[in-house]
Amino acid sequence: MDEITSVKLLSHCSQPHKFAGNHYFMSIQGEYPIDDFVSGRWADDEPAIRLQAVHSLGKSGPQSQPLLARLAMEDDDAEVRAAAVSYLNEPDLLHPLREQPSPIQEAAILQYHKIL
């Protein structure tokens, strides 16, 4: 039997997930490393654990871009948001972060110019 290394989300989750101290119904489609999905590290209460998850997701390939964009926009911790921005490499995902005044706007502008 083959080892399962990733999971693909196809539709809305029916149960709320805890994300940075709050509960959200996530609707992120894509394929994610099984370790990050099962452990839920990107939704942990501790910023340091979420930061580790961002670094792991950032190295996992293009399938993690939508989740990284959501973390860049919504995480409670500025360091986690900035790390997520640093792994974004799709201009369409960086665009709203560049246009909206926020603490990570400058990082998003720099990352946008870096990938072009």
State the secondary-structure class: alpha+beta
Order of helices and strands: EEEEHHHHHH
Number of helices: 6
Mean of pLDDT? 76
Low-confidence stretches: 1-28
What topology, given as strand order, has the largest sheet?
1-4
Helix content: 40-55%
For the secondary structure, the number of strands is 4
End-to-end separation: 42 Å
Biggest sheet details: 2 strands, antiparallel
Structure description:
With 116 residues, this protein is an alpha+beta fold. It has 6 helices and 4 strands. The protein has helices at 34-39, 47-58, 65-74, 78-87, 91-99, 105-115, and strands at residues 6-9, 17-19, 22-24, 30-33. The strands form 2 sheets. A two-stranded antiparallel ribbon has the order 1-4. A two-stranded antiparallel sheet has the order 2-3. β2 and β3 (22-24) form a beta hairpin. α3 packs antiparallel against α4 and α5 packs antiparallel against α6 (105-115). The radius of gyration is 14 Å and the shape is globular. It starts with 5 loop residues before the first strand and ends with a helix.
Fold blueprint:
Elements: E1 6-9, E2 17-19, E3 22-24, E4 30-33, H1 34-39, H2 47-58, H3 65-74, H4 78-87, H5 91-99, H6 105-115
Antiparallel strand pairs: 1-4, 2-3
